[in-house]
Design brief:
Elements lengths: L1 E2 L14 E2 L14 H16 L4 H38 L2 H15 L4 H12 L2 H26 L7 H15 L3 H25 L1 H30 L7 H47 L20 H19 L14 H16 L17
Antiparallel strand pairs: 1-2
C-alpha cells in the first residue's frame, strides 16, 4: 500500500487516505444487484408503453445487464489506476518521472503515439493550469454523482423522463459555485483545442496521407458498390449509400495512414525515450549522492564527458523497437490489455479527431499547407 504525504495535494479521498487495491465484484454472480432491478422495471415500463418493442427488449436486456455489471466491476480498477498514476506523478522525483517517461516512449511510442504527443503538447500549453481546472471539474462531478445515489439505488421505479429531470435538478443543486465550474470547463476546452491544433501541425503529413487516400478511393468505390447496395438497402435507404461508403473509406484510410506513422514514431520515440531514461538515471544517481561512493566510476555518470548515457539509451531504444515491431505494435498482451482499453479508445479518438475533425488549412490540391514543401 502507498500512502500519500501530507504535503501533496490529492484528488478526493486520495489526499488523506491510503491507496488500496479495490475489491472487484463478479459480473457473472447470479445474485441480483441494484442495476438489475432498475433494468427490469425499465423493461416493464417500455413494454407497457411501446408493446411493439417487446421482443427487442427481451433480447437487449440480458446484454445490457451484463454490460452494466462489467462496467461496475472494472470502474473501481480504472479509478485506482488513475489515482495511482496521479499519486506517482506528485510523489516521485522528476528524475524518476523522466525515467518512466523514457521507458514509455521506448516500448509504447508507436502504439500510443498520439496519446504521448497529446500529453507533451498539453504540458507545453499550460498543463499546470489545465490540471487545476481538471481538479475542479472532478470535484464537482463527484458531488453530482454522490447526489444521485439515493435515486439510483432506491427500490421504486422512476420513469426515465422523471429520472433525468431529477438528476439534472439534484446535480445543479450540488454545485455551489457555478461560475468557478464554468471557468474550469472553458479552460479545459481551450486546452483541448490548443492540443488538437498542435497535433494537426505535428502530424500534418500523416493527415495529408489519410485524406489523400480517402479522396482517391471514395468516388470509384462508390460507383462500384452503389448497385449492389441499392438492391440490399432498397429505395427507401439508398440515400445513405454515399454516407456509408465515405465512413468506411475514412476509417480504412485512417487506420492505414496511422499504421505507417506508428512505424516512424516507434523509431524516433525509442531513440528519444532511451536518451530520456539515461539522463533521468544519471540525475537520480547524482541527486542521491550515489556517484560519490563509486570512486573512479563516478565519471561514467557525467553525461557531458561519458558515453555511458549513449550506450544505455541506444540499448534501451533497440530493445523497445524490437518489442514493438515483433508484437505488431500490440506490446500489451491479453488479458492485461483490457486495463488499457480506455487509453486505446482515447488514442483512436484523437487520431480520428486530428485527421477528420475540424478544418485543416489546405491548398488548392487539398494538402495541408503545413505539409507542403
Amino acid at each position: 500500500m502507498l500512502c500519500c504525504g501530507s504535503d501533496r495535494r490529492g484528488w478526493g479521498k486520495l489526499e488523506s487516505a491510503e491507496l488500496k487495491l479495490p475489491k472487484l465484484s463478479n459480473p457473472f454472480d447470479p445474485k441480483p444487484v441494484a442495476s438489475d432491478n432498475y433494468l427490469d422495471n425499465l423493461e416493464n415500463y417500455i413494454d407497457a408503453k411501446y408493446p411493439v418493442l417487446d421482443k427487442c427488449t427481451d433480447v437487449v436486456k440480458p446484454v445490457l445487464k451484463l454490460f452494466v455489471r462489467l462496467l461496475c466491476a472494472v470502474a473501481p480498477l480504472y479509478k485506482f489506476l488513475f489515482q495511482a498514476i496521479y499519486f506517482f506523478y506528485t510523489w516521485a522525483p522528476k528524475s524518476l518521472v523522466k525515467m518512466v517517461a523514457g521507458i514509455s516512449l521506448c516500448f509504447f511510442g508507436g502504439q500510443y503515439l498520439m496519446s504521448l504527443a497529446a500529453l507533451e503538447a498539453w504540458n507545453n500549453t499550460g498543463g499546470k493550469q489545465t490540471m487545476e481546472n481538471l481538479k475542479i471539474v472532478y470535484e464537482e462531478a463527484r458531488k453530482m454523482i454522490e447526489a444521485q445515489h439515493p435515486r439510483l439505488f432506491q427500490r421504486s421505479f422512476i420513469p426515465p423522463q422523471e429520472m433525468v429531470q431529477g438528476a439534472v435538478i439534484s446535480s445543479l443543486k450540488s454545485v455551489k459555485d457555478p461560475r468557478r465550474l464554468e471557468m474550469a470547463i472553458g479552460g479545459l476546452w481551450s486546452s483541448y483545442l490548443a492540443v488538437i491544433a498542435t497535433l494537426k501541425m505535428q502530424f500534418a503529413r500523416t493527415i495529408a496521407l489519410a485524406l489523400g487516400i480517402a479522396d482517391n478511393i471514395k468516388k470509384p468505390l462508390t460507383k462500384v458498390v452503389s448497385p449492389p447496395m441499392k438492391h440490399l438497402l432498397g429505395p427507401d435507404l439508398e440515400q445513405w449509400i454515399s454516407t456509408i461508403v465515405n465512413s468506411v473509406v475514412n476509417i480504412a484510410a485512417l487506420i492505414f495512414a496511422w499504421k505507417v506513422q506508428e512505424v516512424v514514431s516507434a523509431y524516433y520515440s525509442a531513440l528519444r525515450g532511451g536518451r530520456l531514461f539515461a539522463l533521468g538515471l544519471f540525475d537520480l544517481v547524482v541527486q542521491n549522492g550515489i556517484d560519490r561512493v563509486l570512486g573512479p566510476l563516478a565519471k561514467c555518470f557525467d553525461a557531458d564527458n561519458s558515453y555511458l548515457d549513449e550506450v544505455l539509451g541506444w540499448t534501451l531504444a533497440a530493445t523497445g523497437m524490437y518489442f514493438q515491431f515483433a508484437s505488431g505494435f500490440s506490446v500489451i498482451p491479453f488479458p492485461v490489455d483490457i486495463v488499457f482499453l480506455p487509453l486505446d479508445g482515447i488514442e483512436w479518438l484523437l487520431r480520428y479527431q486530428v485527421t477528420f475533425g475540424g478544418a485543416t488549412p489546405t491548398g488548392h490540391d487539398g494538402v495541408p499547407l503545413s505539409a507542403a514543401g
